[in-house]
Amino acid sequence: MTSDVAALVDAVAELVRIPSVNPLHSGPRAERHGPIGEGALAHRLAERFTDCGAADVVLDEVAPGRPNVYGRFRGRTERLVVVDVHTDTVTVEHMTDPPFDGRVEDGHLYGRGALDSKATLGVLLHLLAAWSRAGLRPEPDLLLVGSVAEEAGGLLGATRFRPWVEQQGLRIDHLVVAEPTEFRPVHGLKGLVLAEVTAHGTAAHSARPDLGVNAIEAIAPVVAAFTAEHRRLQSLPPATELGTGTVSVTQISGGTGGNVIPDRCTMAVGRRIVPGEDPADVLDQLAAIARAACPVPCEITSLIPPAPDGKPGSPAFYQRSDAGLVQFLARTAGTTPTVAPFGANALRYSGLARETVIFGPGSITQAHQATERVAVADLARLADILGAWLAPA
Ligand SMILES: [Zn+2]
Fold first, then answer.
1. Which option is the CATH number for 3-189+316-390: 3.40.630.10, 3.40.1190.10, 3.30.43.10, 1.20.1250.20?
2. Which of 118, 161, 225, 392 is 20 to 30 Å from 86 at the Cα level?
3. How far is the CA of 92 from the centre of ligand 1 (A)?
């Protein structure tokens, strides 16, 4: 390793060694390593931002002990670009590796968060420190965001960052959301509505079903109706690369005993939504389908906390693939633009910037695993790409 690459690896490893497990992913193994949550990492990032010459550093408390952190680095022009990296990681309870050791082996840096998504933070800190020492500044103003609660809890950090931008009156030109995308600019994500349907029957002895109303039997045609709706959606021509919406029944529960006619049955139904669909309208459609199919009274409620705009779910994220940022990243990385099936903070950033893209090293299929690692070569490649984008001089 050259000294420059070693310093780059160290910058990422330092962040991996600061546990930042999402509180909803807590467990005994994570707890042995110190406080759960993003707080320690956010405070360390604030220090590092200052060391690297940030003009402004803000800790923005999203939940107790869980601040977003914002660092603004002055560029040579008025243009403003943002890189958003979530600071939380998924659970470490199933890991077969020491979760936070940040060791380098076989050309890879290991540890929870190395890939998803501390690599981008570490690489940027390395670049900003080097530029600061050399008296260089990026071409645009750079706002570097460490956001909490991406992996679980409803994208709270991104939800908080958005009104902060609006309060500051910032106009963002390019917004890059860091996630493992194998260096392919991801320009579309489906949105999600997740709902619970409850059918209400009447309990009775199962020897006298005629005296009750069976809620499980009542919900069966609702399952069939959602399957039919899924098939209908598949038959529609897709409007974008994201394809069509989908419907999946994912959970069902009901019944209190083998000899009791169940008076209640609930099911979870997920609807992936595409650009142009509104979560509130989609929830209404699901409710209408459930009520039409269910022979007993039923109700439907969203399982997702309302978005800041009050919507019961996330609309899709979609950026046209011919946008300058998408094309620049694809050209510089030698990859092609794509769309992705996973969720990300970009679902909260619709319209926040002139152009938005999700981008980073490594594959999402390698994230959240029993081991987690990022290739050292990918860190160097990311440094080259971000350097080309930010054009220090
Ligand atoms: Zn991630």
1. 3.40.630.10
2. 392
3. 14
